[in-house]
Amino acid sequence: MKFFIDTADTDVIREAQSKGWVDGVTTNPSLVAQSGKPMEKLIAEICEMVPGPVSAEVLSTSYEDMLVEGRKLAAIASNVVVKVPLTEDGLRAVHSFTEEDIQTNVTLCFSPMQALLAAKAGATMISPFVGRLDDISHQGMELVEQICQIYDNYLFDTEVLVASVRSPMHMLQATQIGADIATLPYKVLKQLVRHPLTDLGLEQFLKDAQSIPKA
Ligand code: E4P
Q1: Which residue from 2, 5, 6 has its CB within 8 A of the most atoms of ligand 1, so it is best to mutate?
Q2: Strands 104-109 vs 80-85: parallel, antiparallel or unpaired
Q3: Ligand 1 binding pocket includes 57 (Cβ within 6 Å)
Q4: Are the CB atoms for 131 and 166 separated by under 8 Å?
Q5: Could you state, in order of their start, the residue ranges of all structural domains in the chain?
Q6: 6: CA distance to ligand 1 center in Å?
Q7: Which CATH class is domain 2-209?
Q8: Is residue 215 pLDDT above 90, yes or no?
Q9: How far apart are CA 6 and CA 4, in angstroms?
Q10: How far is it, in rounded angstroms, from Cα 77 to Cα 73?
């Protein structure tokens, strides 16, 4: 499974990458706004740091404007993945980007039929938002299961990128289902490492080691 980091904070990306935890990056307009940097400059900076896919989202909502904006984003670096919202215009833009060999990540997916349409448009990745579904008392992971089953049934190449991940439990479920990618906030990545028994065990080993004869 590939781990993407869900942030536009270059310091955080650098730190996570130094630990070998970053196969790619996802950004969204809210995260870019938090970074305080202009979109194109920021995406160029991230693409230089990370060789894997870097998702950059279009802000336009019409097909024509998405095409212009998406092409501009794709020209920043060869690892840019143009992130497109799951709307009628968005799907049409994905269809055109597919013909132009521009990689796409279809975002804000909340139903299996939306995911089917994204795959038919040739999306490189589909992003089901599990945390936001949980927030409204749905089972976000059920959506991931449904999408994986549909894509397996019809042999679609579109990768399932589990998004809006909020906890290690989401990660466990995503890996058990067999999703291709998950994008995680750095906080959740770090939570995956920690276990109190590891800390206690290490503490005990280091204590016992003090009585090992020196030579
Ligand atoms: C994914 O591409 C999105 O940027 C992200 O996962 C959204 O997460 P949130 O629902 O926690 O904002």
Answers
A1: 6
A2: parallel
A3: no
A4: yes
A5: 2-209
A6: 7
A7: alpha beta
A8: no
A9: 6
A10: 8
